[in-house]
Specification:
108 residues, four-stranded mixed β-sheet, 4 strands, alpha+beta, elongated
């Protein structure tokens, strides 16, 4: 059986595939997200600020975009795996909101 650490590492490796499948949009709120590693280091402005990354695009415009994360539909701690069918693209705020939602459900 895979450890949680191994499952999460696989999810990170699967991010580009999930990103393509979900067309770069959060499956919960529909906002556009970016993969930080897809932005060249020289275009980034400062460090990543939580859910946001600032960068200069190819046209010289300063932009601020939500960072892409992977959300497991069946939680890892409930036996979920990092299979592409169990993952969706999510922005950081929605990923945390879903985590809080499931924590509240467990308390019922």
């Amino acid at each position: 059986m895979n450890s949680k650490k191994q499952i999460r590492a696989k999810a990170a490796r699967m991010l580009p595939e999930v990103f393509r499948r979900d067309r770069g949009k959060c499956r919960y709120c529909g906002k556009r997200v970016v993969m930080v590693r897809s932005i060249p280091e020289h275009r980034r402005v400062g460090k990543r600020h939580g859910d946001w990354v600032k960068f200069v695009d190819e046209h010289g415009k300063h932009r601020r975009e939500l960072v892409a994360t992977v959300d497991h539909l069946q939680r890892v701690d409930e036996g979920g795996d990092s299979d592409i069918d169990n993952m969706v693209l999510a922005c950081g705020p929605c990923n945390r909101m879903m985590d809080l939602y499931y924590q509240q459900l467990r308390k019922l």
